[in-house]
Amino acid sequence: MKRLALAAGVLALGAGTALGLWAVLKPSPVLEIDQEAPDFSMVDQEGRTITKADLLGRAWIADFMFTHCSGVCPVLLTRFEELNRVLPPGVVLVSFSMDPLRDTPEALKKYASDSKVDLKRWRFVSTGSVAKRNELAKGLMTDAGENPGDAVNSVIHSEYFMLVDASGRIRGAYQSGDEARLSRLKKDARELSLSGVYGLPAVNAGLNGASLFLLGLGLAFAKFRRFEAHAFLVLGSVACSTAFLACYLTYHYLAGATRFPGTGAARTLYFVMLVSHTILAVAVPPLIITVIVKAARRRWETHKNWARITVPIWAYVSGTGVLIYWVLFRGSW
Length: 333
What we know:
Layout: H1 2-25, E1 35-36, E2 41-44, E3 49-51, H2 52-55, E4 59-65, H3 73-86, E5 91-97, H4 105-115, E6 122-126, H5 130-139, E7 144-146, E8 155-157, E9 160-164, E10 169-175, H6 179-193, H7 200-223, H8 227-255, H9 264-296, H10 300-330
Helix pairs in contact: 1-7, 1-8, 7-8, 7-10, 9-10
């Protein structure tokens, strides 16, 4: 029975970790386009150089605008603001100005400030010259040019959003005015966002799931008085939870928080779950240590009493950890 418990623990730990790592390291999904994005070197609204190489490691979405545009550009801005609100940190937004003569970095900075956009992962880029603009537009499968006969739309530019993966390949083109296509963009961008350190939430979910499984299996063995097997399984669950904590802290240190994109009742329910999960998660480590110490000292009655408190809290934290990942990274918002 001890060997069975050990095998089950190793299997669960391996499966949970493998599932999470597969979500991070798996090949990119098959999307509509698979074409290398062009190299470029331009300047953003802060006067910083931005190149294709700077964007490697995270998926990014490009749109095309100019600050004097009073036609479709305000609509594009609103759409991009929505993407900025709902997408996880593993996605960067890049607005390329198609008016290089007027849209200097200073003009773009003022435009962003006047529009009150959140620039944490959104960059407005001056293309610098007509030649560089045209080369970029062609490389991103769009058109650009002058339209001097139209006072409103004096610059020709695409209304499509272009999705580029973390390795710098174009993966999709999405009509900004089509709600169905925007929903597809959100789904595809979330899928591509789980790369490198930004894929750690998938690993965390796998570790939480493995921890919950091992804990439940360990309790089952305890019911049948197979205490040695029970101890192996519970310690395996502790290992999963410890690994989760390390990955969780790493992700939040490097990537920051992921905002919940929903509204209304869904938002209320999510925050009820998140707050309860966070508060109880703080209590889990000292509770686990207490239970283990009681068992190590063979104080079985107090061990069981503490376990009756610890196990439901531990299981709730692990289970809601999986749910939070699913809501943030797999939900349709």
